[in-house]
């Protein structure tokens, strides 16, 4: 399955970091019910590999499960062994990209500068994560997209329901979502319905084209 195609169609990646295995059950249920198709758990989350395996078992056919914060080839191998269907990193590590390409695993490495973005794309990444968007800002995305319009950018950091439209308008092919998608109170209380409602709102925002 070409998950970059799924990324470009759904225009969203949900990112889960630092939650318990129990809370991940609530998160996964709510996100899939709300229509999220790509769910990522960062590898610096306790029990990340178990969460990946749990999500694969629970949500097969509903959503694709990936690993984030993949910093080296060893981490990539362990994530794939746990069931990760795509890999995301905060940086450009050519050896990690090479491993993913050789093994047919989608990878969206993180980059900030034009040099990093182009290097990641030429190494085989079909989409590149622009990070950290919360610090770089919408004007940076718009400016960098102009000469690099052939490279799909996954803008990650700072997106909310109130500003996500501006990410797409500035040229983001997709947006990475974190805390804005998963209210702490919903996770703590096991309220998957609240998360599903929030997910549906983001899915609607992502599929309402304002950038064309």
Task: Describe this protein's structure.
The chain has 212 residues and is an alpha/beta fold. The protein has a single domain, classed as TIM Barrel, CATH 3.20.20.70. The chain is 48% helix and 16% strand. Strand 3, helix 4 (73-82) and strand 4 form a beta-alpha-beta unit. Helix 2 runs parallel beside helix 3 and helix 2 (21-33) crosses helix 11. The two termini are 27 Å apart.
Please describe the topology of this protein:
Elements: H1 3-10, E1 12-16, H2 21-33, E2 38-42, H3 48-59, E3 64-68, H4 73-82, E4 86-88, H5 94-102, E5 106-108, E6 110-111, H6 114-122, E7 128-130, H7 133-136, H8 138-145, E8 153-156, H9 164-169, E9 174-177, H10 184-189, H11 192-207
Parallel strand pairs: 1-2, 1-9, 2-3, 3-4, 4-5, 6-7, 7-8, 8-9
